[in-house]
Amino acid sequence: xxxxxxxxxxxxxxxxxxxxxxxxxxxxxxxxxxxxxxxxxxxxxxxxxxxxxxxxxxxxxxxxxxxxxxxxxxxxxxxxxxxxxxxxxxxxxxxxxxxxxxxxxxxxxxxxxxxxxxxxxxxxxxxxxxxxxxxxxxxxxxxxxxxxxxxxxxxxxxxxxxxxxxxxxxxxxxxxxxxxxxxxxxxxxxxxxxxxxxxxxxxxxxxxxxxxxxxxxxxxxxxxxxxxxxxxxxxxxxxxxxxxxxxxxxxxxxxxxxxxxxxxxxxxxxxxxxxxxxxxxxxxxxxxxxxxxxxxxxxxxxxxxxxxxxxxxxxxxxxxxxxxxxxxxxxxxxxxxxxxxxxxxxxxxxxxxxxxxxxxxxxxxxxxxxxxxxxxxxxxxxxxxxxxxxxxxxxxxxx
Length: 399
Fold this sequence. Notes:
- The protein contains six helices and 18 strands.
- The protein has 399 residues and is α+β, with helices and mostly antiparallel strands.
- It has two domains: 9-87, no CATH class; 112-398, no CATH class.
- The strands form three sheets. The chain has an eight-stranded antiparallel β-sheet with strand order 1-2-3-14-13-15-11-12, with helices on one face.
- Helix 2 packs across helix 3.
- The longest helix is centred in the first third of the chain and has 30 residues, at 23-52.
- The radius of gyration is 27 Å and the shape is globular.
């Protein structure tokens, strides 16, 4: 039986005939698709480059993550963060690192008259017992005003279970000695015509006592930003949202928008973020629930990360709390123990949680060189708000 010598050639010819698209015909559509893809990627490249070279002290890695989140990658970033923090949860038990809670030989003394007037804070009842040396003891910082200190700080363990985790709190006399103001960042809330903006202007530095972070980005805060009749990014003030309200006389209040606080003629600014954590001197319900959307979709309320929050005392003074390894419930409990009757969460995660107080010598103005972190393990330096920063923040001034 003979095998035809031209059969392979016939097969090639048949293959050419049944091929739907020739190589030449493929080249043109592929080139067009590549060109379209390149055109689409150019703006993203410029956007990423702009984000990575923006002013400020934020590390490049965090700038990249924020860029991904802002360009539709929020769910991916949130999942990655939640997974990482779940795998790196703080250990149960243990002791805080040596020196994290300053030891003091001074006994906690009560001065009911001054406490009731809001001139000094009430003593703290610590969460983990028995207290370690120095734990929960208020100590004044900065310079006294009219013989009274405007800021007291204290450190104590934030959990009975995770006993190596330390939170720091700052009590601020905002009724008689200081004034509190909201400052806009160059991205949050958007726009450039705000009365007070980043970086901290030289004009207020002689009276600057402290500066600390505000809330989530407005796209995630489920609330709005208001300043002297203007809304940030057009965000409305949301009924029921936890609201930090700044008044024209320098005082502040915290409450649920529309019921406990509202837009009156004496309001200077409003910063909303999520829902109240503490109300009527009690932890609100649902702090341990699996519905993390209520407390921010970034990481989920059961994940233990750096968190910050702010509360108002019965006397109308402000307390700020921050620390690592805290769930939403733990943060709320810290604020409650620090004397808050109503409280709300501010920003979370290592790069965004910071509180700085200043102690300049003589008549010198406040600045990075005389700034101090509330908790020594906070990542960002006191330089942060003296350089352009994307996020809004809060300043405490001598009245």
